Amino acid sequence: MPAVHLQENSKLISGHVAEKKGYLYWVLNLTDENGKRKPKWIPTHKKVKGNKTWANNMLPTIRKEWTEKLLQEATASQQSASPSGPSSAAISFVDFLYQWLEYKYKSATGRVMDSKPIELSTYSGYEQQLNNPIAPYFREHPVALCDLTKQDILAFYEKELERVKPTTVKHYHALIHGALNYAVDKNLIPSNPADRIIISKPEPFKGDYYLDSEVLNLFEVIKGHKIELVVLLTAFYGLRRSEVIGLKWSAFDFNHNCFSIRHTVTTCNVKGERVTIKKDRQRTNPVCGLTIDPFLKERLLEAKKQQEENRKLCGRAYNKEYLGYVCVDVIGNLIKPNYVSSTFGKLLAKNNLRHIRFHDLRHTCASLLLANGVPMEQVKEWLGHSEISTTVDIYGHLQYATKKQSAAAIEQDIVAPMLQNL
């Protein structure tokens, strides 16, 4: 990597935004050890059209990150060359956490061999929690990794419990405990001070849900809206947001009136960039595990036909990256997960409907099924839970009765009354 000679109070590395082969890059003006200019090209992974303003706005952040990165590397190089340099264990706890986070990033991107790979979305969660509130707290209460105690960690947890729920603190504990296990494994500390911390089991979460009359009102409100099909599929089948956004036409068998969950789409923030993760992922239910309701079959075929017409009308302007996806807009752009959740909440408020989260449509589906006598085992398969215990823990207080009623219960409670009102 090109060398850079900076002091702690030096100005940021200069740079600019450049274009290459239709994509935007950040170009930093670095120099090598001989003082010769050697630009560093950093890809934004975004196309030129519509992203220049974003790239220019992000440039100061990139310049700051690389200035700090190169300063840290220069400092580490000097310390390693000095016999009296500090040991690895003398590193601050915060600096160690960011080293561990970088290790996790390599694990998420398949660049380490001594760790079980993690999902990029899992890494994103670690990054978010570390940036706020873990790192800010331990910068205000600095402690070296080798001096960290159980009391230091507990003080952080107790402070956080003043503003967040125990479930959230449990996530912070999982991150800190895992990072310290890594420190033990690397012989940076002799034992894990978080080992002796016991987090009390939080109250079980109970999701909210709509009654059948509220579902009917919701269906009236979303008619013709961009997320109508997303909401219908989620309410009928209790799909996770990543599952409904990831649906492809190839997953549907309209001859046998069934479909399966084979693909998911999620988004997350990774190193300051919004990333879309598309992944093939098979549910635990059979190859064609969900029955297509007649009402939804009609709506799906209408949407498929409309997509084909939109593609012809838009021509080259149509986004071909998401060809084959069910949930796209009129120019072929994938309907993004965050847009669905935020728009859903705004729609409820605008139409004076009781507030629930978008994910609560999944609970609504389960509640309607169980209220209509569908067995817990069948609900488990309908929702795609890997273990029956998960279904029982969440919905065990509802009674159940017989099997082949999953699609029929939805048809009876929602579709039939709705069709009568048309």
Mean pLDDT: 85
Reported for the largest beta sheet, the result is: 3 strands, antiparallel
Rg is 26 Å
**What is the tally of beta strands?**
8
How are the strands of the largest sheet arranged? Answer: 1-2-3
Strand content: 5-15%
The helix/strand series, from N terminus to C terminus, equals: EEEHHHHHHHHEEEEEHHHHHH
Q: What structural class should be given to the helix and strand makeup?
A: mainly alpha
Write up this protein:
- The chain has 422 residues and is mainly alpha-helical.
- The protein contains 14 helices and eight strands.
- The protein has a three-stranded antiparallel β-sheet, covered by helices on one side. A three-stranded antiparallel β-sheet has the order 4-5-8, with no helix packed on it.
- Helix 2 (93-108) crosses helix 5, helix 6 (212-221) packs across helix 14 (406-420) and helix 12 (376-383) crosses helix 13.
Task: Write the topology of this structure.
Elements: E1 15-20, E2 23-28, E3 40-47, H1 52-81, H2 93-108, H3 120-140, H4 150-160, H5 166-185, H6 212-221, H7 228-237, H8 241-245, E4 252-253, E5 258-259, E6 263-270, E7 273-280, E8 290-291, H9 294-314, H10 337-350, H11 360-371, H12 376-383, H13 388-395, H14 406-420
Antiparallel strand pairs: 1-2, 2-3, 4-5, 5-8, 6-7
Relevant terms:
422 residues, mainly alpha, three-stranded antiparallel sheet, 14 helices, 8 strands, 48% helix, globular, disordered N terminus
